[in-house]
Amino acid sequence: MHDLDLTSLRLFVAVCETRNIARAAEQHHIVASAVSKRIAQLENTLGNVLVERNRRGVAITGAGDILLEHARGMLAGADRVARDMADFGKGIKGQVRVLATVSSIAEFLPDDIASFLQVPEHREIRIDIEEALSRDVVTALREGLAPLAVCWDAADLEGLQTRPYRRDRLAIIAHPAHPLASRKQCAFKDTLDYDHVGLPASTAVHTMLARAAAIIGKPISYRAVVSTFDASLRCVRANLGIAVVPREVAEPFAPTYGLKVLPLTDSWAQRSFAICFHDEARLSPAARALAAHLQALAAPRVNERRLRPN
């Protein structure tokens, strides 16, 4: 198979997005026949029909859908290379891409990275933070899509090197009129008689709560499922139910929203986060410096833990 060229892939993506060869050609300021030729060359190279022409434009085939997904990833990677090289030419001494979970970004990671960049020798380093679920963070790290990641340390980190990072505690967030609101803290089992506002099933918090409920032997009744912590707080403010959210996320907003924060007393509610990478020896100087900075901010008790084996 011949190498796939980026120009053909860009034109193919444009055709798929517009569903029309003529419009794709207009976007790229070339003639439609040139776009058709590029698509035909791709089909010949890959040995599959990628688009089917019809009166209204084109329809993407099954093979075309597969190529479209890969093409977008390849083009995004190429754009990132071009951007990084341009920034390096402007004097940036290093660039680190960090994948991180929603909780770590919502709680402490941005401030910790900001403190890293305030160090004079780090001011010419650029940090790109990308949000992802814990499982996706680990997968991307294993596939070499990022040098560094921050996620919940209960994730499947086998084969990765880790360093301890910060901790948080999950808490119940309740409307002042809720029956639990008079408490100062709460056990998870005591919440299962009430409606919850939950996060998607793919999140680490949802998985943890489902496991805890299964052990107790009682289901969680979800009245609403939302995609962000902020949306959870808004639903609780509307008294749609209680929510389990990191205390560190809820406490800054609780007075404004008029909500009660009740730390969970269950042992599993205390969570630890880890800094993860494939091989410290292969990290760039910038990535190694950032990892060391983040590790230095770990809670004292977590710092005493032995490092995970490779």
Molecular structure report:
This protein is of the alpha/beta class and 310 residues long. The chain folds into three domains: 6-87, Winged helix-like DNA-binding domain superfamily/Winged helix DNA-binding domain (Arc Repressor Mutant, subunit A), CATH 1.10.10; 92-166 and 271-303, D-Maltodextrin-Binding Protein, domain 2 (3-Layer(aba) Sandwich); 168-270, Periplasmic binding protein-like II (D-Maltodextrin-Binding Protein, domain 2). Helix content is 43%, strand content 22%. The protein has 13 helices and eleven strands. Helix 1 packs across helix 4. The two termini are 37 Å apart. 32% of the residues are buried. Residues 301-310 have low confidence and may be disordered.
The share of residues in extended strands comes to 15-25%
* Secondary structure tally: strands: 11
- Report the CATH C-level class of the largest domain: Alpha Beta
The whole-number mean of residue pLDDT values reads: 87
- CA-based gyration radius: 24 Å
CATH architectural grouping of the largest domain? 3-Layer(aba) Sandwich
The name of the CATH superfamily of the largest domain reads Periplasmic binding protein-like II
Alpha-carbon distance between the termini? 37 Å
CATH fold-level topology of the largest domain: D-Maltodextrin-Binding Protein, domain 2
Number of domains: 3
**Secondary-structure element order, N to C:** HHHEEHEHHEHEEEHEHEHHEEHH
Percent helix, as a range, is: 40-55%
Spans of at least 5 consecutive residues with low confidence = 301-310
